[in-house]
Amino acid sequence: MTQLYRSALARVGAVALLAAGGLAGVAAPAHAADGADLELIPLSYQLATGVEEAKAKPFKFQVDNTRGTIDAKGVRVEVETKGLKDRKVGVVIPDGCEEDGTRFTCLLGDLPAGTTEDFGIPLFSTGGRGAAGTLVVTISAATADPDLENNTVEHDITVAKRGYDLTTWVQDVYADVEVDGDEADEANLKPVRPGQTAPLDWAVYNDGSRRATGLVYGITLPANVTFAELPEGCVEQKLGGFAQAYCEDSGVVLRPGEFYTADVRVKVAAGVTEKVLRPGFVFAAGLDGVEGEPEEEPEVASPAQRKAFAETDDGDNTAQFDVFVDLSPAPSPSGEPTPTATPSGQPTASPSPGGGGGGLPVTGVQAGLIGGIGAAVLLAGGALLVLARRRKVVLVTPGDEKSED
After folding, report:
1. Torsion angles phi and psi, residue 140, rounded to 5
2. Is the dihedral of CA 167, 170, 171, 177 positive or negative?
3. Looking at residue 332, what is its pLDDT?
4. Measuring CA to CA, which residue among 99, 136, 91, 139 is closest to residue 119?
5. pLDDT of residue 131
6. Cβ contacts of residue 191 below 8 Å, gap of 6+?
7. Which of 57, 61, 111, 31 is nearest to 311 (CA)?
């Protein structure tokens, strides 16, 4: 489950918070708790000087329910802002949230067992660089939580120098997802049937105060999921049984408030037996220079420019998603249900727990895997430079920001 908050979208409806993937860090499998055992994990740490209120950066946090066996119902987030320095940063309270003095509360919704959800607290710059105080963020649910110790985070905010700041977002995969860069008005989505394809709705935002020039990005799919369609300029490979794509657009110019996306479709293996395939990732990084046919005149960054272009906060460059699968029997031509597919013997994303019983396995997101993705994307950049064809660029500027610039 993921839900996107953008500064442009928050004024349109009750879309409260951002979703886009995360960096949970469970190093080894563990047995799940008998309940909705939630954990709150901060993903963003720095804000670039000069980020305007109309283009506020959603500071990403992740709610993790991979240790529990029960769906978390009515998950809410409470944000206390009195510890922030108002001469450094300001907060945009999303529509649909309840405000009470220096704090506000927003409803995230239900979070299925074994999944994660990211949300964002939109911050903007009001002054210069330096320590900007502390946000206190707490999550709660209507479902009983056996361990509340990890439900509150006191998160220090830092305002850094001007620069671009990429933030990735990706929606969980369903059969009828609308590819539009958000999840607004998308309720009761249908899982993907085994053997079928579905679109991947993803985006890379520039939440900084300077433009990003050139972009490299990577997509890693869960086990039993493969690519059915990729943009031009992508190289596909298998690594550890996972399908991965590394892509480069060396000519794109991404201004503050703009986002970048491209058509991607994925296919679920015919023999899967799990309702949720996870985790998948989208990773992005700037190239700090443009080549080819950019949106505006090409330029090659000087060493001084490269230093100036250095990214403000790369902690939120990775987004996580899940693939939801429809395992219900498919109706036969006669109307009678067909037998459920048998296991194909293909590997799954979650290892089986050792021994007998003891609850569900919890795998979480392996920190080594995430690090490998980032390193591989950067290493692949040099090889991608030799690709002869560039993909079609889809650059979207949030429409309602034009009147506020």
Report:
1. -150, 165
2. positive
3. 61
4. 139
5. 96
6. 174, 175, 275, 324, 325, 326
7. 57
Q: Domain spans of the chain?
A: 7-326+364-400
What's residue 334's pLDDT?
Answer: 53
Q: What pLDDT score does 291 carry?
A: 65
pLDDT class for 28, splitting at 50, 70, 90?
A: very low
Find where tokens 């998160």 sit: 155
Q: What is the pTM of this model?
A: 0.70
Considering only residues 243 and 36, tell me which one the structure prediction assigns the higher pLDDT: 243
Q: Which two tokens stand for residue 214?
A: 């050139």
| Mean pLDDT to the nearest integer, 73-80 | 95
Phi, psi dihedrals of residue 84, rounded to the nearest 5°: -85, 150
The model's pLDDT over 393-405, given as tens digits with 9 standing for 90+, comes to 334 433 333 333 3
- Let me know: does 254 contact 212? Beta carbons within 8 Å: yes
Whether the CA torsion 379, 384, 385, 391 is positive or negative: it is negative
Average pLDDT, the chain: 73
- Spatial separation of the C-alpha atoms in residues 312 and 256, rounded to whole Å: 13
Report the pLDDT value the prediction gives residue 369, as an integer from 0 to 100.
32
CA 28-34-39 angle, to 5 degrees, is: 55
Residues 6 or more apart whose CB falls under 8 angstroms from that of 134 comprise 83, 84, 154, 155, 156, 157
Give Cβ neighbours of residue 153 (< 8 Å, ≥ 6 apart): 40, 41, 42, 61, 136, 137, 138
- How far apart are the C-alpha atoms of 405 and 403, rounded to whole Å? 6
Tell me the C-alpha to C-alpha distance, in Å, between residue 176 and each of 191, 203, 357. 8, 18, 36
Cis peptide before 279 (omega within 30 of 0): yes
Query: Higher-confidence residue: 239 or 268?
Result: 268
CA distance 269 to 120: 33
* CATH architecture for the domain at 7-326+364-400: Sandwich (2.60)
Are β-strands 212-220 and 225-229 bridged in parallel, bridged antiparallel, or unpaired?
unpaired
Average pLDDT over residues 40-48: 94
Mean pLDDT of 115-143: 93
Which of 360, 340, 283, 268 is closest to 314 using CA atoms? 283
